[in-house]
Amino acid sequence: MNMHDISEATEITPSGRIDRADHGWRAKCLQRLVRMQLPVPRSFAISADTVRMIAQGRRVHPDALRDVFAGSGLVSVRPSAVMPDWGGPGTILNVGINDSLHERLVGLIGQDNADAIYLAFVQSYATHIARLDPDMFTQDGPNALAEALRCYRDEMDAPFPQDPAEQLAEVLRSMARAWDGPTARLLRQAKGAPPDAPLGLVVQEMALALGPGLCGSGTIQFIDPVTGAPRVTGRFRGQHHGATVGSGAETLFLTSDERGPSLQDTAPEIFADLVRFGIAARERLREEMQIEFVVTEGRISVIDATRVTRSSRASVRIAVSLARDGVIPHDEALMRVEPRALADLLHHQVDPRVPRKLIARGIDASPGAATGRIVFSAAAAQSAHARGEACVLVRRETVPEDIRGMHASVAVLTERGGTTSHAAVIARGLGLPCIVGATGLAIDARARTLRAGDQLLHEGDEITIDGSSGEVLAGAATLLPPALDDAFTQLLDWAAEAGGLDVRANADTPEDAITARRFHAKGIGLCRTEHMFFDAERLPAMREMIFADSPEDRRLSLERILPMQRKDFTRLFEIMAGLPVTIRLFDPPLHEFLPHDRDGLRELAESLDLPLSHVTRRVEALTEFNPMLGMRGVRLGITVPEIYDMQARAIFEATVEASRKGDPVVPEIMIPLVSAMREVELVKTRIDAVAAAVRNEMRADFTFRLGVMVETPRAALRAGDIAAHSAFLSFGTNDLTQMTYGLSRDDAGRFMGTYVGQGVYAEDPFHVLDQDGVGELLLTGVRRARQQKPSITLSVCGEHGGNPESIAFCHAADIDYVSCSPFRVPVARLAAAQSAIRSRMACDSE
Amino acid sequence: MNMHDISEATEITPSGRIDRADHGWRAKCLQRLVRMQLPVPRSFAISADTVRMIAQGRRVHPDALRDVFAGSGLVSVRPSAVMPDWGGPGTILNVGINDSLHERLVGLIGQDNADAIYLAFVQSYATHIARLDPDMFTQDGPNALAEALRCYRDEMDAPFPQDPAEQLAEVLRSMARAWDGPTARLLRQAKGAPPDAPLGLVVQEMALALGPGLCGSGTIQFIDPVTGAPRVTGRFRGQHHGATVGSGAETLFLTSDERGPSLQDTAPEIFADLVRFGIAARERLREEMQIEFVVTEGRISVIDATRVTRSSRASVRIAVSLARDGVIPHDEALMRVEPRALADLLHHQVDPRVPRKLIARGIDASPGAATGRIVFSAAAAQSAHARGEACVLVRRETVPEDIRGMHASVAVLTERGGTTSHAAVIARGLGLPCIVGATGLAIDARARTLRAGDQLLHEGDEITIDGSSGEVLAGAATLLPPALDDAFTQLLDWAAEAGGLDVRANADTPEDAITARRFHAKGIGLCRTEHMFFDAERLPAMREMIFADSPEDRRLSLERILPMQRKDFTRLFEIMAGLPVTIRLFDPPLHEFLPHDRDGLRELAESLDLPLSHVTRRVEALTEFNPMLGMRGVRLGITVPEIYDMQARAIFEATVEASRKGDPVVPEIMIPLVSAMREVELVKTRIDAVAAAVRNEMRADFTFRLGVMVETPRAALRAGDIAAHSAFLSFGTNDLTQMTYGLSRDDAGRFMGTYVGQGVYAEDPFHVLDQDGVGELLLTGVRRARQQKPSITLSVCGEHGGNPESIAFCHAADIDYVSCSPFRVPVARLAAAQSAIRSRMACDSE
């Protein structure tokens, strides 16, 4: 014996020093079960330090563990890492069996069972500990045990070890070494564990699950892992010992609710005990646990308990239920749900329990699942919608003209594009499942076929889009409905109470606004107005305006759109009932409103009564090499100021109208694509003039807030100047990312996969905010703006507003709110709450 | 009298205290003439303080100026601002005339002359001092004087003032007030003067230029204002007094070289005196002066001397000549030439002395002038060139395919685009005069006509492009040849001696490289390699590469281009003879190498032996929404690495070849469009491998330097990381400006005019580096790169490299060198020298 022997194995008793960092989660969990006085067999914890020494060749002193064989004579050895999902070497059962114990067991549980236990251990020992060829230890039938023992002796030139202490020492050595191997390291690194993570081991006396009376083994859990609803599930297998020994023929359901024989009926007192254990474990372990148990002649042994694995929706329901029952505080319930998981709750999902018919994969651009018939054009989608048929719009990529087609579809699939391509952004806004960048597809829009590998699909064929996984499935998959239930609502309420930055929604339409309110958005942070001009009633006036030669003619064309715009805004103000609404002035280049094909041009020439050559020329003249960096946003606002004049008027008239009917409205007007302070000054002057005119004409007073969308790197750098003229700044991180990287989100899809795959970019910067580059510009902008005007409101609108990591960054950056697609509001809300809770925890621990 | 009287008027004597800041440039200049003992009439300087007080109502004490009337009795009053070009109120002559002086003058110079002087003053006084209606003072003929005096009395209810002191006081008051008026303020602000700039006045006794003997007035200067060559020019008008009085009939040339009567012949001693005065003035005033003089009965009076106005080329010749003669030091000669002026010397110029037939205006995109026949396509330009006809390529805008047509043209004119559009950049590189953004033109390429206002021009019509002024002229204008003379070369040599940052050239072809050397470039700072792939011999292999399905097939296609690329680089290395050559790896998106029209696609399909649909599909798939932000530069280098492999191999093989023949070559390889450090690491690994392979195969050793073009905001922010893997960083400020502003240079032309006009941007940021935004990123990049690696070479390549203000900024930013179009190298060299001299002066004065 030496000085370390005492620490080599610690018996798990209520008062023993068992520490998760030293002994692992399983040892700690078992100690809790022991403290709850559950019938846990005698167990010993071996610390990570000891395991490390064993791996380095030190032998465990047999005396330290001799006691564990005092019961049945059989023991199990299980891994006990710091976190359950870091894995570990496989459990080894039945350690301790030898010729003499075998003989004793024959008397207790019969020849067959005793043979089976001995055989199982010899096979396991030979292959996992002695590392002999597994193919040589597949013995079966009446002489299997004798053959296995002989085979072992032949191979090892020694008889099978008869000393239980020696068996155990070898098992421990083998498990310790396996944890140190390169494969195990890689596997646990993939789970987020450090490569040299510690491993503890648990050695436990085994209860026999074979023999006379009620004997067997089983698991029990108390919730449904898919829904999270309270429901007892599990199995009990009579005469089933360890993973492999025993007939297991008498498999029982647990409750009498099931259609078949159940433990509840067969052994009601055992069932009652198990339920009692479950309730106690949930309270003491503060978690829904699955309990593993053995019944020996009617006596229960609880041998292990693990956290129930669960779906996204179950995770919400469980967390809320634990908190409601007072088991955990609200903050802890919030921390236990992965924000991203909430997105799954808002939509239909493919049932994970049913096998899938995969035909292609792409980027999971908008979550949820839907089944519909393939259509290849926006027009076909609209016809299908009119016929009442669910359809999936399949395009190489979508363009603004496709929006109505997207509205008419149940899901969208594109061959090109990335997470922030047009299709992806619009689909998320509409809450439609969407897959983009499905590069394995070949779409032939003329032939109306879709080739995916060997399969050729035609227009009208049914497919399912799983936007949560990026999988395109053949036919109609089994779908689970959305889970906007009571637990979901409760969690959002708690999230709101937990504080953190506010969350608003990007909402362009009344439908969006209604969704935003349903998800408790604190207002609209970004209302894009351009889609409003694609309407069939408005497009002609818009085109007339583009072709007008004088400001006066432009004004006249826009006057026809004014009442419709006013109605757009009135409706939004009414729905939001006094919550702030930030309206971004017209942003896209004008050529988006013009046709580019021959027929469209001819039609346009006719309707404008202009020669085709003139119309063609004008359309060509407006075409741009790089529309993203062209004549749009405030540049249009300054060179064609009539558009902003009309929009400002519509906003103010709607403000007066809505304020007369309901809560007073203070609209927020946002100027896009600013790169210089003077742009803000010029637009401000004109908007102030429009406000004065409307106040005068309508004999009504109102206030408004004018702000700037910071989307160019220059605007971020000049945020100090710009803040001087702005009530708020909103960082449009989509465009800011595009310009900081020099990367068009519409074109990046083609190589983003390669780039992230090769680690050129750690993450897709359109998905997760790039803290090193874009983030620095954002922080610079925030600092300079606040220095110039401490009272300024600062926000982030764009796809990053819905990304949990990015929200944590915004929280730290002292941003007032984020704004994201309505369907991402719950995710953002929870992420914001978690950031706030983390900050408080960091403060408390300081 | 009061305490200020002494300072009210200071007689200009050799020892009097005349200060330019107090009394203005003219008073100071006159004092210098007085010190040179030139026959300057008695003169008094009135300080700016006094003028300010006069403007505020204070009257000048008459005694202070009474003496000035002691000579002829007539005086002039001239403005004397701090700088000559700040302007000032008009000169007032003949102050002091009244009935009694008139009577005396009748006896001296005759009735008509005396009447004329009196009349001139009454008219001038009435309109400029009494502010009466000028239309009432147009009297002419025998009774004009009496009528004018009566008219004055009628209007003013008082007789014409007879006290010379009172006249003078009124004149001073009026001039002082005029300087304070809003119009005068705006005018001088336009010249760069502060709005409250001081004004001195000069009161001078007038010499009579009328009367018996040789009398008259004239100007003389000693250099040709267009060429700067030594040549006496000017006029002498006999019997001509003040601007308006006298017959002036006897106008004489000055020298006997002229075809007509001359002062040199008529009065050789007077001419000799004037030449003597001129030589003395040049030496003492350290400048080429124009002297204004009056001859009274054979006696010369020097009444004023002003700096000769001069053309760009004259400014160079004058400065060099003054310095060579030891009148001024070299540094001062360098400071006296406006760097931009040098650009005019490199090209033909429209003779400023000949009237112009203007037909349209555009943006002056590349300086110089050329006459040629209009062609509307690159093909037509090449045919014209083959026929030996000079032609001007007229396009809506140019695209890479037009480059050969541009080569074949003498000038380029485009309807669209801005200073950094494709046409502008290429034309500057080729040294071709170019006008872009001539929005007043309507090009009909099919009808082959060009409409400019009312004029319709056809293919083959002759026009002249003045790329220095942005004017399109009808027909063949008179052109001055380039002036790459001895003075120009001397100035560049001095500029090189003056130090400052180095200047390299952007050179893509052997011709560019030869030009670069001719202009003393210190190497090639940017060799763009993409144009090399448009060659008829290479394009097919390039297209084959684009359509290849495997890396191996791509490699095979590129292998056909390898020997040509190697030859490209060998030739450049040979021309540059050991000077550094920075080669930028392939940058543009692949779709630039594919046809987009139907015929081109069909041809391509045939040559590749692929179905048309396949080719069309592939071309469409490669098309991008925003090519500027797409799959180009290092992104292509990483996803299609075979291109960079081939280029690196060509560079290294050329290095070995050229080093064997001449000076050892250390090529610099530059990676474009980097936004993340990892991109550099990945490319570096492959290039190192290619280098190792070439060293091994060719059994030769060589070194090379790998660097990064910093053109995305993110690369500037991450310059620290990136520097760790780079031998040099070159800031590509064109693209950096595009991305920082979110502004495509190809599309900005459409509104840049409005933007700069309305002061939204102070200057076109593609023309003058935006110090507040792009400049901050540049400084950040410089700081972080130097911090990481103090030895790193930092440069700016791009259009800003040739802009004087931007060079001053680069100098201050501690940039090692700038690189610009070969034809801008002299401008940049001079600007760099000036920055260095200014720094030294600032140090000295500390």
Overview of the molecule:
Chains A, B: InterPro entries: ATP_grasp_subdomain_1, PEP-util_enz_mobile_dom, PEP_util_AS, PEP_util_C, Phosphohistidine_dom_sf, Pyruvate_phosphate_dikinase, Pyrv/PenolPyrv_kinase-like_dom, Pyrv_kinase-like_dom_sf. Chains A, B: Catalyzes the reversible phosphorylation of pyruvate and phosphate. Chains A, B: It is an enzyme of class 2 (transferase). Two copies of one chain form a homodimer. With 846 residues, chain A is an alpha/beta fold. Among the domains of chain A are: 200 residues, Dna Ligase, domain 1; 95 residues, 2-Layer Sandwich (D-amino Acid Aminotransferase, Chain A, domain 1), CATH 3.30.470; 131 residues, 3-Layer(bba) Sandwich (Glucose Oxidase, domain 1). Chain A has an eight-stranded mixed β-sheet, covered by helices on one side. In chain A, strands 24-25-26-27-28-29-30-31 form an eight-stranded parallel beta barrel, surrounded by six helices. Chain A has a five-stranded antiparallel β-sheet with strand order 1-2-5-3-4. In chain A, helix 18 links the parallel strand 16 and strand 17. In chain A, helix 22 packs parallel to helix 26 and helix 23 crosses helix 24. The longest helix of chain A has 26 residues.
